[in-house]
Amino acid sequence: MKLIERVLHKVCFAVVLGLSLAPSIASAQAPSPLPAFPASDKVFQDDKQFNALTLGPGNNIEIHQAPPDLQLDSFDFSSDGKLLFMIWASGRVEVRDVQTSKRIAQFKPMPSVAFEVETNDAIHAWVVTGQHGLIRFIDPQSRKEVREIQTEIGRFKYDIQKVLLAPDGRWLAYVNQDNGKVLDIGGGEAKAIADLGDAYDIALSQDGSQLWAVDRTKIYGFALPEWKQIGSALLIDQVKLDTNTSLALVAGKNGPVAFVPSKSVLLRYELKTMTGAAVTQKPAYRIYSPGPGDRVIVNELGATSLYAEDGTLRCQWQLRPAQGSKGRKISENGEWFGVLNFGKVEVWNLRNLLNSCADKQ
Fold this sequence. Notes:
Elements: H1 2-29, E1 42-45, E2 53-55, E3 61-63, E4 72-77, E5 83-88, E6 93-97, E7 103-107, E8 114-120, E9 125-130, E10 134-138, E11 145-150, E12 162-165, E13 171-175, E14 180-184, E15 191-197, E16 201-204, E17 210-214, E18 218-223, E19 228-234, E20 248-252, E21 255-261, E22 266-270, E23 275-278, E24 284-288, E25 295-300, E26 303-308, E27 313-318, E28 328-330, E29 336-340, E30 344-349, H2 350-355
Antiparallel strand pairs: 1-30, 2-3, 4-5, 5-6, 6-7, 8-9, 9-10, 10-11, 12-13, 13-14, 14-15, 16-17, 17-18, 18-19, 20-21, 21-22, 22-23, 24-25, 25-26, 26-27, 28-29, 29-30
């Protein structure tokens, strides 16, 4: 009997001790909350206001869908970071001065929705990409179309996912998950000079000597201007099937480094040796390269994170929601970071944004 009492006493003591330590253990293991994403520096939205709610008979509230000309579908920056292109569902493209927020132009280049605008001083045109593989060149002064390229529609009839222009304006590259091409546009009729296959995304190295592409299974590159393939490697983890693959190139100590999101990790590839490795243990969705430099911004599970070229986590914020998989963009000069947020574009000065997050190292 006494033996049983001693055993019960020890059991009760252990239970009480465990309960008393549980809060401290839990608090010690609980991760500290991430800093909130800073407030934007600028907000761009249409000057016209649409009243989506009206009071109907019997005090019933009626909800109306905004007309296409008031539905903000996407946005883009000019390569020099001076202009913001707001693209509406009607096909209207509104051009704003980023510094002053003033509208300086608007035009309707195509009956279907556009989703990307590339600018290039060498060709003196705004290159607008829209549905059904159509690319149109718009004169910045007259706002009129000066050229049109109808890209080849693949067997799956996918739309163009990404367009890149050569710095000197001699070629244009596009990918559409099916039959991407590089087109020589320096002369008259556009002619294919390289095949990019079923790539989802492409990126140019910072020195302009290499173009890299990524599809569902591999990453592969080309040397310019010969367009000779220089490397290929299988992705070491599956990419997500419900969003578009994205690719970012940064300058590494031993040459260009590529980052690719996947279903369960963030992938990093040393392109000189084509060696890949996982640098996180959680899913990554979209990647953005902050212009010239050696860092990438990653939209991942529960956070927006900044990684150095070696894969080191530098800082994190709480995840900033955006509209659609292409709802976040960085200007090519690395000055601005924008987020499409249901009817408006929020814009941050990228340098201030990065400085707002404490360095992890």
